[in-house]
Amino acid sequence: MLIGVSVNTIGNIERDVVQPSLPNLRKLAEILDRPIYYLGTFEEMPADTLGQKIRKARFYHGLLVTEAAEKFEVDIKSINNWETDRQVPSSKSINEVNNFISITYKDKAPK
After folding, report:
1. Which CATH number applies to 50-101: 1.10.1670.10, 1.10.260.40, 1.10.510.10, 3.40.50.720?
2. 96, 97, 99, 102: CA torsion to nearest 10
3. How far, rounded to the nearest angstrom, does the alpha carbon of residue 14 sit from its chain's CA centroid?
4. For this UniProt entry, which segments traverse the membrane (predicted)?
5. What are phi and psi of 93, to 5 degrees?
């Protein structure tokens, strides 16, 4: 109960029956002393569009929408619009977004 969910829920997460919420993933990563991407719950997320890549990168980095908005100095609505491909990042943000989404998995092994 360290993360505030039941043993059954943990079992369902382990069997890929349910996806843990990002806050629960963050707690698990802390308890296990591993980076959030090590838990690998979002490797299968689609990454065909820019919006999908942004969302996947946000999960990979363990950021809530509010935290991503702070990081890119935009409002939450902008992040939601980017992730749903309703808008693209402005020229002011695009370089930082491109760096953010250039995720590499070569560093996934725990140190």
Report:
1. 1.10.260.40
2. 180
3. 18
4. none
5. -100, -20
* pLDDT of the chain, 111 residues: tens digit per residue: 567 888 898 888 888 888 888 888 888 888 889 998 888 778 788 999 999 999 999 999 999 999 999 999 999 999 999 999 999 999 999 999 999 998 754 444 444
What is the value of pTM for the model shown?
Answer: 0.81
pLDDT on residue 1? 56
The one-character DSSP state at 36 is: G
Contact at 8 Å (CB) between 37 and 108? yes
CB 53 within 8 A of CB 85: no
Q: What are residue 43's phi and psi, to 5 degrees?
A: -60, -30
CA atoms within 13 A on the CB side of 94: 6
Residue type, position 94, single letter = I
Tokens encoding 102: 């250039």
